[in-house]
From TrEMBL:
It comes from the Bacteria. InterPro entries: DTW (IPR005636), DTWD2/TAPT (IPR039262). This is tRNA-uridine aminocarboxypropyltransferase. Residues 51-247 form the DTW domain. SMART domains: DTW. Its EC number is 2.5.1.25. It is an enzyme of class 2 (transferase). Keywords: S-adenosyl-L-methionine, Transferase, tRNA processing. The keyword Ubl conjugation does not apply. It holds the Pfam family DTW. One of its GO terms (biological process) is tRNA processing.
Length: 275
């Protein structure tokens, strides 16, 4: 009998991936971009927890995979993610959470010298009214700035397209400053009062939020409060699952993961009842 040359742990990984709920879930734009960017790499991307066996879609530890709980929301909003180089490869990236819930999400790698032509075409598509979600203090006087999107802002024959620059804060500023095509877009800037309310709700004093958290506030500012709440609940489930996978939770403060799942399911039901 011919023996296999594969080490035992490889068989374990393959079996876990075969039984992962992610296998049954539909692929979205960030999944495709992840596979594309991974194919470009000359060496494996390494992150903290590199020994953890991860789901190929949500990138959480397979025992904490959330893919089977993912649900698309009913929304009139489209989203574009412009992602900084290897951001899409990071297990901690929260931009993919937006694509998990918002059906009409596109995702592109940012390039200073060669912007993706499909991305530029979508930004110029007349069916959309495009809003760059970005802090107003970095915006020049030539760009229109809004704190909310309502009937007085949105043209009746247009669909809102929200654009997010996905990377670290320093990278997002770099992407904006070095991308002239972004300098002509209208801007949705989250109002300071909305940020303060969110921070109070979350018990946080940090105002530099993850991309998914900003997107939740943007949905709220665009009149889809319940969808924003569902995205926040999905983000909370992601954070807790990620921390559990890294053994970063003290036993006395661990809440049952089912609590986060139920909170998300309840938020989705509430959003569906308002759509």
């Amino acid at each position: 009998m011919r023996s296999s040359n594969k080490p035992p742990q490889v068989d374990v990984v393959e079996q876990l991936l075969k039984t992962s709920p992610a296998i049954k879930e539909p692929v979205h734009a960030v999944h495709r971009l992840y596979n594309y960017r991974k194919a470009l790499s000359t060496k494996p991307f390494t992150a903290r927890g590199k020994k953890l066996i991860r789901c190929p879609k949500c990138l959480l530890g397979v025992q904490f995979c959330t893919c089977e709980h993912r649900k698309f929301l009913s929304t009139n909003i489209s989203v574009m993610l412009i992602m900084y180089d290897d951001e899409v490869l990071k297990p901690t990236n929260s931009g993919r959470l937006i694509a998990d819930l918002i059906p009409n999400t596109s995702a592109y790698l940012w390039s200073r010298t060669e912007p993706n032509p499909d991305m530029l075409a979508q930004l110029a598509d007349p069916q959309y009214q495009v809003f760059l979600v970005f802090p107003e203090q970095y915006i020049g006087s030539q760009q229109a700035i809004y704190n909310q999107i309502d009937a007085s802002v949105l043209a009746p024959d247009k669909k809102p397209l929200l654009v997010f620059l996905d990377g670290s804060w320093r990278q997002a500023i770099k992407m904006f400053r070095k991308s002239p095509y972004l300098h002509t877009l209208s801007v949705l800037s989250i109002a300071p009062s909305q940020l303060a309310t969110y921070a109070l709700r979350k018990g946080s004093h940090e105002f530099q939020l993850g991309t998914a958290e900003v997107a939740a506030l943007a949905l709220e500012a665009a009149g889809e409060r319940e969808n924003g709440a569902a995205l926040t609940a999905w983000f909370d489930l992601f954070v807790e699952s990620s921390l559990l996978g890294r053994n970063r939770r003290q036993k006395e403060i661990i809440k049952p993961i089912e609590l986060y799942i139920n909170n998300f399911n309840d938020a989705v039901k509430k959003a569906a009842s308002r759509s």
